[in-house]
Amino acid sequence: MEIFLQQLVNGLVVGSVYALVALGYTMVYGILGLINFAHGDLVMVGAMSALQTMLFLMGVTPGMSPLAMLTLSLAVAIPVCMMLGYTMERLAYRRLRNAPRLAPLITAIGMSFLLQTIAMMLWGRNYHTFPQLVSTAPMQPVAGVFVTPIQVTIIVGSALIMAALIVLVTKTKLGRAMRATAENHRVAALMGVDTNLIIALTFVIGAALAAVAGVMYASNYGIAHYGMGFMPGLKAFTAAVLGGIGNLGGAMLGGVVLGLVESFGAGYIEHMTFGFLNSSYQDIFAFIILGLVLIFRPTGLLGERVSDRA
Amino acid sequence: MKRSVVALAVMGLGLSLAHAQEMAVRLGSVAPLTGTISHLGKDNENGARLAIEDANAKGVTIAGKKVRFELLGEDDQADPRTGTTVAQRLVDADVKGVIGHLNSGTTIPASRIYNQAGVPMVSPSATNPTLTRQGYPGVFRTIANDVQQGGMLGKFIVGSLGAKTVAIIDDRTAYGQGLADETDKAVKAAGGKVVAREFTTDKATDFNAILTKIRGVKPDAIFFGGMDAQAGPMLRQLKQLGIDAKFVTGDGGCSPEMIKLAGDAINASAYCSMPGLAIDKMPGGPEFRNRYKARFNTDVQIYSPYAYDAATAIIRAMQAADSAEPSKYLPALKKSNFQGVIGTVAFDDKGDIKEGAVTMYQYKNGAWSPM
Fold it and tell me: Which UniProt keywords apply (chain B) (predicted)?
């Protein structure tokens, strides 16, 4: 039981980060039908620019409180990623909006390589230690389950951000414009929606989420590296497809489900298959679930609107 | 005007004459220069580069011609498939010898391509025993293999640490798995019990799931076969999950980077093994470390001394045979016997380095200190 609960916590932490990143994929897909493969690398840029800010602050004001430092570094990382998201959309994707779908897709992969290479030139190949401003020392275990303050921060933080995003999309005028643009650009434009602006904003919001996810991810594992965005990006993309790409609730559900499946998969796969499969198959476990969902619900767990887009 | 044209022509003639007397010899260096262990890959390339720059500065003459060595660095991304592609590219570029690759998983498939092309290769860091047991005449390594290292690790974990129960994790690469298997055997041979065998990948950063599972069986020691990029975060997560078993890893985790990545989670119950001697105990170690730092403005990670000696072995063999042709200098490479940075460089009949020592290290005061 103790092990089960610990795996539940492990899965929730990873799943929350996946969910935050998956939202960026799904929002862009919902509105443009584009899979922005460079989104995972925005996670890296978020973590790296936060790291740079922290190192700067530590040099200038050594005695600064961790909370203030975290806030300030987020205040740098988020706008940096937002600007980058906007720039990508403006320079690369907007010109290709009416091109065949393969063109923006390949451009997105190119963007991903470009960001990684620039980051490698800026920050080098070495791993960087990411300051642990929120403690990663385990708190008093409850029922044998060890939880660290950063893990609590990640779960609560992502839940709050996701709730705010839902409110933004469903209750505000901007959200209505986003939904209208997603349904049909031309009609939305005829109704007086500035679709260029709305699409750019979608990228910008997704990038902000990626920045937060990057800082959370790096704080939890204590490391940052120019290639760190690749794996969470890939997993988050999987989560977005699992939940139903284009659907906000689906991305959140998909992220959490994927995190839990990975965690329980690694923990129990050996018992479940009587020792036939072991933890080296933990990723396969996640993809089996994905495969099954896509066979029986091709639009993903919650995806419905997607069918008329694809 | 006219005079200057003549002067130019004369200068040009002079240049081309100088060029004709100099012979360029290309050597290849392959290591992952991008991806999770690119810091180690660059370290290998730097080691080989330093050896080549030294040879060029000293001036090497082969068959009466002054030789200028050129290093062709390739990136195999630690990926076996990319490894064979770049191996073919080096062969096509007519390299006369290869220093590399870094990982066992890339070196073994690539060695087949070099063998077909008749290009000798010396790996500074691939430790999987299979590499030198394929019957390829031109395959060498300057580092001890995993049979030696795993045997030492097993004895150390059970004998010196007194661990009765051991959990073993590996990253499913040819290196990690090979070393974990050898350690597994040696732990059992020494009377210890392997209570868990778990797996991860060489790209993972989250190990909470498998560590939670390991916590359930309460081992005295945990051994990880893999690289520092995983070992560091793994150690942190052990602490976060409240596991206080001894942590032991192989040469892949025996780097300064590992200590940096583990942060405050690392303490005196972390150990690692390294084939060969500690850099301070290597005959040319301290000098090499200083020169390396001065040239590349970064610290030696793990294998650059081995890469330096690998390149030196090839260059010396070419001098001894008075030829840069692989078929001519290969016999001389087999008979290598010189004092390198790491100690005596000489190969046995399989191509493994003779007397490959293994040293155990313990974490102490911010560094790995030899035991």
Answer: Signal
Say which CATH architecture domain A7-132+148-308 belongs to: Orthogonal Bundle (1.10)
B38-96 confidence digits (pLDDT tens): 889 999 999 999 999 999 999 999 988 999 999 999 999 989 999 999 999 999 999 99
DSSP assignment of B210-274 equals HHHHHHTT--SEEEEES-HHHHHHHHHHHHHTT---EEEE-GGG-SHHHHHHHGGG--TTEEEEE
For B93-109, the pLDDT digits (tens) are: 999 999 989 999 999 99
For residue B206, what is the nearest residue in chain A, using CA coordinates?
A221
**Would you identify the CATH topology of the domain B23-144+282-345?**
Rossmann fold (3.40.50)
- Cα–Cα distance between B20 and B24 in angstroms, integer? 10
Single out the residue of A224, A292, A306, A260 nearest to residue A30, CA to CA: A306
Name the one residue in this structure whose structure tokens are 């025993």: B129
One CATH from 3.40.50.2300, 3.60.15.10, 3.30.420.270, 3.40.50.10260 for B146-275: 3.40.50.2300
Of A42, A131, A99, nearest in space to B263 by CA:
A131
> What number is the average pLDDT over the span B270-275?
91
- pTM of the full predicted structure? 0.80
Among A8, A12, A41, A127, most B C-beta atoms within 10 A, so best to mutate, is A127
Check CB contact under 8 Å for A14 and B39: no
Mean of the pLDDT values across residues B266-280? 87
Determine phi and psi for B162, rounding to 5 degrees.
Answer: 70, 25
Rounded distance between C-alpha atoms, residue B317 and residue B336, angstroms: 7
Cβ contact B205–A221 (<8 Å): yes
Contact list in B for residue A10 (CB cut-off 8 A) is 206, 208-209, 212
Q: What residues of chain B lie within 8 A of the CB of A7, using their CB?
A: 209, 212
Q: Do A127 and B260 touch (CB under 8 A)?
A: yes
**Residue B142 contacts residue B306 (beta carbons within 8 Å):** yes
- Taking Cα atoms as reference points, which of B299, B298, B282, B290 lies closest to residue B341? B282
The pLDDT value given to residue B94: 93
Q: Is B6's pLDDT higher than 80?
A: no
Cα–Cα distance measured from residue B298 to residue A126, given in angstroms and rounded to the nearest whole number: 10
Q: Tell me the C-alpha distance between A112 and A237, whole Å.
A: 14
CB contact under 8 A, B209 and A266: yes
The reply to whether A148 touches chain B by the CB within 8 Å rule is: yes
Separation CA B315–CA B336 (nearest Å): 11
Q: What is the DSSP letter of A237?
A: H
Per-residue pLDDT for B242 more than 60? yes
Decide if pLDDT at A147 tops 80. Answer: yes
Q: Does B35 touch chain A (CB under 8 A)?
A: yes
User: Does B101 sit behind a cis peptide bond, omega within 30 degrees of 0 on the bond before it?
Assistant: yes
CA of B342 to nearest chain A CA: how many angstroms apart? Answer: 25
Using an 8 Å Cβ cutoff, are A246 and A303 in contact? Answer: yes
Question: ipTM score of the complex?
Answer: 0.86
